[in-house]
């Protein structure tokens, strides 16, 4: 499928894991719409693992659990499509899914057909229980080809966690996005580690196959399947800022039905979403020292996105000079910065952008090139 921007949506796993059913998916879809998240760009509703019966049917097809999905998947897809949403599902490339439900190994073509018949628009494809005699790239290529021939435009979301040098082969599989790191958990150590692991994988992302840093934990507040500890508001802000600066897909993972105002304001921040969704898809680059990285990305309209981060447990000074990003002293230019949280505008003086940052905090600016006075 041809996508020009990282996908945005909601996925059931982080909060609900196996506790899913049609009503929950529809209620979550309604909440997504009522709370303005569809308008903000979140248009995929994805059912993760645990939707199927443990055994395939006699015809070899995978069977949705009738207790959880009594009306079947086609009916659910139709209901989601009628709300203006896209429908995502999940399978796995190994012998079983991670939660030990049937996977699509050697059944790629029959399953891709089922997904197409059900009206699926997005397939997340996991990596648990890979058999020793099968390389990851072979399994992902098989599903990529089966989806491309399924008769339906289905976004292929690869989820092999960056294992087995995924970055070297993932673009050969036709995947539209790839999980570049392991699973996220709702705590600061997990977020910090996912950000740091991303730095040497940046050349492999961008248009064609986006680096996926995993589903967001914003708004989980320690509750739900991966809610191990929870984060402070500052940490959730840094989480969202980093995912947007690094151009990750934005798949919400909290319970939307009870999402609070802080969570919604974060998830709907239009300056950050604009940076995440910028169609130029230039590679983000990193300046700055250990634990105080500065991330920079050139944007489609000539603006520059600048993120100052403090990943340390103590205060840090994060900074850059305009010279570092191609605006030399002889250019006659400077930046007009817009702070993505406050909307406050300021003009860069003396070619310096920086701040002393509290632990785990961050600032993101969208910078517009203007004449230096
Ligand atoms: C793996 C994936 C997760 C989730 C679970 C489901 O751990 O990385 O995102 O899909 O499997 O079992």
TrEMBL record:
Reaction(s) the record says it catalyses: Hydrolysis of terminal, non-reducing alpha-D-galactose residues in alpha-D-galactosides, including galactose oligosaccharides, galactomannans and galactolipids
GO BP field: carbohydrate metabolic process
Lineage: superkingdom: Bacteria
Keywords of the record: Disulfide bond, Glycosidase, Hydrolase, Signal
Record-annotated Alpha galactosidase C-terminal domain positions: 290-366
Molecular function, one GO term: alpha-galactosidase activity
UniProt-listed Enzyme Commission number(s): 3.2.1.22
Similarity comment: family membership: Belongs to the glycosyl hydrolase 27 family.
Name of this chain's protein: Alpha-galactosidase
Organism per entry: Candidatus Borkfalkia excrementavium
């Amino acid at each position: 499928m041809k996508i020009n921007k990282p996908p945005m949506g909601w996925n059931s796993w982080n909060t609900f894991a196996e506790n899913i059913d049609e009503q929950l998916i529809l209620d979550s879809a309604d909440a997504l719409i009522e709370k303005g998240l569809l308008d903000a760009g979140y248009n995929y509703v994805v059912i993760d693992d645990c939707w199927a019966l443990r055994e395939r049917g006699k015809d070899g097809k995978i069977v949705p659990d009738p207790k959880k999905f009594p009306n079947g998947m086609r009916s659910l897809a139709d209901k989601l499509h009628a709300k203006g949403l896209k429908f995502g599902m999940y399978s796995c490339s190994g012998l079983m899914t991670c939660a030990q439900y049937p996977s699509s190994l050697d059944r790629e073509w029959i399953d891709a057909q089922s997904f197409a018949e059900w009206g699926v628009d997005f397939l997340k494809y996991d990596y648990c229980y890979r058999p020793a005699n099968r390389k990851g790239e072979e399994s992902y290529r098989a599903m990529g080809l089966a989806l491309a021939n399924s008769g339906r435009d289905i976004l292929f979301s690869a989820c092999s966690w960056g294992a087995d040098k995924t970055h070297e082969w993932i673009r050969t599989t036709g995947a539209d996005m790839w999980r570049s790191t392991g699973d996220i958990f709702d705590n600061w150590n997990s977020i910090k580690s996912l950000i740091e692991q991303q730095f040497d994988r940046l050349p492999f992302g961008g248009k064609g196959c986006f680096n996926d840093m995993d589903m967001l934990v914003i708004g989980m507040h320690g509750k739900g399947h991966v809610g191990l500890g929870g984060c402070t508001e500052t940490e959730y802000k840094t989480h969202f800022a980093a995912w947007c600066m690094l151009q990750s897909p934005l798949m919400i993972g909290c319970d939307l039905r009870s999402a609070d105002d802080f969570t919604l304001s974060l998830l709907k921040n239009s300056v950050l979403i604009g940076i995440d969704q910028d169609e130029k898809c230039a590679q983000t680059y990193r300046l700055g020292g250990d634990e105080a990285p500065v991330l920079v990305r050139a944007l489609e309209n000539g603006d520059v996105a600048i993120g100052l981060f403090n990943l340390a447990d103590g205060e840090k000074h994060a900074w850059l000079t305009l010279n570092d990003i191609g605006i030399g002293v002889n250019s006659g230019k400077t930046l007009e910065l817009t702070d993505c949280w406050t909307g406050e505008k300021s003009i860069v003086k003396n070619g310096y952008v920086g701040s002393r940052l509290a632990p785990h905090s961050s600032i993101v600016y969208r910078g517009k090139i203007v004449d230096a006075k």
